Structure formats: structure tokens, C-alpha cells
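Q: Here's a chain of 58 amino acids. Please give me its 3D structure as C-alpha cells.
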Amino acid sequence: MKRRDLTRELEKAGYKAIRDDGDHTIYAKDGYRPVQVPRHQEINEYTARAILKAAGLQ
């Protein structure tokens, strides 16, 4: 999955980028745990699925 597609899904669900640290961008939403998105153009399918699951989108 492309990183921009994953970040679009998170932002559409109300998540906002709160911090850019090192190799990851941290997205957060009120009432939910923050999720980390690696800074790669292409993100492994399993990693992307785990991020979406942690965000409560899957």
C-alpha cells in the first residue's frame, strides 16, 4: 500500500499528524491511541493492515 493512501485513510477518519520523529510520523485522534506510520513510499501490506486495525478502521 502506498503511504499516501494510508495517511489519507487515517485523515479521513479524523486522525491528524502530530509529530514527525525520525523514521515515523505519529498520527493521533481524541479518544484513541496514537499510531505510527513509517516513512516509506511503499508500506508492507501486513504493516498497513496492522496500522489500520490499531486505528480502529478495520
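Q: Can you summarize the key feature?
A: DSSP finds two helices and three strands in the chain.
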